[in-house]
């Protein structure tokens, strides 16, 4: 009787039988992106590749998502199935691409690699065609496939340089699996950029966990991968408004860790490129959260030794803030002075270039708040023994806006600068710097000759006092050396000569 009852129940087609082998795992959550699926290599690995994927497909999606799905063989072409079956074929092909293979040996899994690559290209073409309609099962399958292929732990840093990620002198390192990773990135980009993608459904799978794992990939040593990630993350920021605060906070945490802990990260420049565009879209007046990002993340990024790698992007981000709110200029300049390099001339050149750009965007009120400490630092740069630093500091007066600010505040600034110019005329070794010094001094004379003469007179007076004090110290030390003289040693006894009475004044 039992056999008769069971024989009358409807049976699934033979195509779906392999899926039932993994039915016990169908309760796994689709957002568990960290569980990668890997296959061992055997003599018939290529022959069994498709069957392995079919057995795993029910483990990839939750039962609620896969219920009622019709299984379509993944090696069919989209042209060979009806429009109604294309969605299921799309999911089946995504399942096929969930198998991660080893690319370290180019002769290993050669046929299987080609099969997977061809399938990925078919998926990209299908999404690019505009005929795709992403159901929740397709969205889950896409995110799962991308997570399995992209999210990975990078090997320990192989670079000997401990000052940061890549430097300007180092050759970039390329991932051997890039031929497949590139297509996965392109597929993910087209998927996120798809106009009819339902963001309300997709955000359940492109969630905080997915975004954090995506951000981790920015530490890749392959510049091609970081460039793809930059575009994808920017699209995610634009598509999923609900994730924007979290994304900004996550990037801030990466910067904090880089600045204050490791000083090693390969993707700071790319992250700043994204935020250069993000900052330009901030609404006015700026929220306190955005100002905190400037104070606590962007300005401290001037501290690391490897700032040269991302300085151009950092300067652009700071400039975007100042365009939005010029009154932040004094805050930025204070930050530059706080992290000003003392022994690194190349960083000093970058700081001077950024300083000129910031001053060009400053108004009179903000300039007056910081002009005294600022021009004390510029005076030190004018006297730098590194001729490029000294030259760059002199070139600040070629900027008309800065010259205008100095002219209106010359009573404060000229007394700070003239002593530095006078010291250059007497002591600097580089002829080009000497010529620039004479030109700047001439410019100040044309601006306010009476003030310049007064400052020069005061400098000469102070210089004379300093010379007299130095000579006095030298004479005093000579007297002390004479007064502390000893008789030659006789045996093991030294005889102290009673010094003549002399007055020693300092």
From TrEMBL:
The B regulatory subunit might modulate substrate selectivity and catalytic activity, and also might direct the localization of the catalytic enzyme to a particular subcellular compartment. It comes from the Eukaryota. Residues 24-38 have a biased composition (Polar residues). GO terms for molecular function: protein phosphatase regulator activity. This is Serine/threonine protein phosphatase 2A regulatory subunit. It is found in: Cytoplasm. GO terms for cellular component: cytoplasm; protein phosphatase type 2A complex. Its main location: cytoplasm. Belongs to the phosphatase 2A regulatory subunit B56 family. The keyword Repeat does not apply. Residues 1-38 are annotated as: Disordered. The lineage of its organism: Eukaryota, Viridiplantae, Streptophyta, Embryophyta, Tracheophyta. Gene3D superfamilies: Leucine-rich Repeat Variant (1.25.10.10). GO terms for biological process: signal transduction. Keywords: Cytoplasm. Pfam families: B56. InterPro entries: ARM-like, ARM-type_fold, PP2A_B56. It comes from Liquidambar formosana (Formosan gum). The keyword Acetylation does not apply.
């Amino acid at each position: 009787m039992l056999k008769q009852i069971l024989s009358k129940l409807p049976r699934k087609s033979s195509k779906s039988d392999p899926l039932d082998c993994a039915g016990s795992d169908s309760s796994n959550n689709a957002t568990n992106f960290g569980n990668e699926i890997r296959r061992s290599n055997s003599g018939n690995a290529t022959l069994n590749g498709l069957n392995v994927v079919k057995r795993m497909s029910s483990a990839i999606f939750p039962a609620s998502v896969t219920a009622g799905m019709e299984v379509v063989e993944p090696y069919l072409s989209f042209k060979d199935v009806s429009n109604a079956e294309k969605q299921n074929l799309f999911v089946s092909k995504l399942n096929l691409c969930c198998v991660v293979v080893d690319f370290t040996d180019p002769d290993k899994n050669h046929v299987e690699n080609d099969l997977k690559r061809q399938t990925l290209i078919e998926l990209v073409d299908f999404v690019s065609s505009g005929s795709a309609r992403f159901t929740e099962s397709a969205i889950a399958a896409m995110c799962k496939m991308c997570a399995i292929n992209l999210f990975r732990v990078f090997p320990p840093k192989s670079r000997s340089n401990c000052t940061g990620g890549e430097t300007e002198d180092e050759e970039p390192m390329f991932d051997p699996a890039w031929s497949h990773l590139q297509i996965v990135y392109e597929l993910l980009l087209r998927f996120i950029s798809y106009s009819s993608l339902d963001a309300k459904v997709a955000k359940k799978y492109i969630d905080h966990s997915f975004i954090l794992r995506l951000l981790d990939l920015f530490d890749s040593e392959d510049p091609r991968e970081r460039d793809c990630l930059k575009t994808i993350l920017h699209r995610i920021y634009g598509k999923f408004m609900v994730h924007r605060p979290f994304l900004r906070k996550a990037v801030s945490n990466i910067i904090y860790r880089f600045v204050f802990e490791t000083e090693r990260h390969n993707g700071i420049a790319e992250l700043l490129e994204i935020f250069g565009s993000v900052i330009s879209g901030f609404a006015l007046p700026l929220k306190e959260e955005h100002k905190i990002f400037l104070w606590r993340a962007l300005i401290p990024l001037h501290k690391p030794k490897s700032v040269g790698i991302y300085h151009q992007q950092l300067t652009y981000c700071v400039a975007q803030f100042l365009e939005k709110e010029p009154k932040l200029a004094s805050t930025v300049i204070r930050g530059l002075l706080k992290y000003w390099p003392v022994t690194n001339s190349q960083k000093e050149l970058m700081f001077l270039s950024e300083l000129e750009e910031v001053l060009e965007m400053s108004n009179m009120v903000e300039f007056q708040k910081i002009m005294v400490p600022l021009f004390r630092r510029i005076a030190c740069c004018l006297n730098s023994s590194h001729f490029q630093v000294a030259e760059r500091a002199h070139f600040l007066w070629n900027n008309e806006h800065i010259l205008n600010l100095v002219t209106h505040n010359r009573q404060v600034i000229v007394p700070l600068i003239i002593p530095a110019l006078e010291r250059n005329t007497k002591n600097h070794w580089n002829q080009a710097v000497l010529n620039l010094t004479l030109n700047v001094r001439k410019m100040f004379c044309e601006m306010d000759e009476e003030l310049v003469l007064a400052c020069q007179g005061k400098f000469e007076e102070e210089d004379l006092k300093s010379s007299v004090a130095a000579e006095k110290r030298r004479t005093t030390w000579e007297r002390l050396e004479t007064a502390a003289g000893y008789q030659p040693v006789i045996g093991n006894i030294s005889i102290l000569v009673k010094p003549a009475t002399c007055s020693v004044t300092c």
